[in-house]
Amino acid sequence: MENCIFCKIVNREIPSTRIYEDRRIIAIKDLSPQAPVHVLFIPKDHIPSADNLDESNSDIVAHVFSVIPRVAAELGLRNGYRIINNCGEDGGQTVKHLHFHLLGGKKLDEKIV
Ligand code: AMP
Ligand code: ZN
Predict the structure, then answer these.
(1) Which CATH class is domain 5-104?
(2) Of 22, 27, 76, 101, which residue is 20 to 30 A from 33 by alpha carbon distance?
(3) What is the pTM assigned to this prediction?
């Protein structure tokens, strides 16, 4: 997708620190980490947001969630972590390409709003 920053990262037109990749997704370090570990799981296909998921494409979410425990273990997140998806304007989504934040490495604030 033209002018989509995460599509450009997937296509290596913009550099990133990749910590995981397979046929369908990449995981990169967030540029502005909000916790000691802050990784973004990004499907290679351009899906604008979680609001654009349906029966035809939602299997990617299961795939992301099947990879997260492995990556979390490799990153040493033995005490737990938080997975966040921001969706749309009110959800605080700034990059309009579906992604999931993995946050951890410290005791996170219990409040999420
Ligand atoms: P969201 O607000 O949920 O859309 O999250 C977008 C995230 O992408 C933010 O946490 C940004 O810090 C992160 N981000 C934006 N540009 C880049 C980039 N070039 N490389 C890595 N992370 C980025
Ligand atoms: Zn995109």
Answers:
(1) alpha beta
(2) 22
(3) 0.97
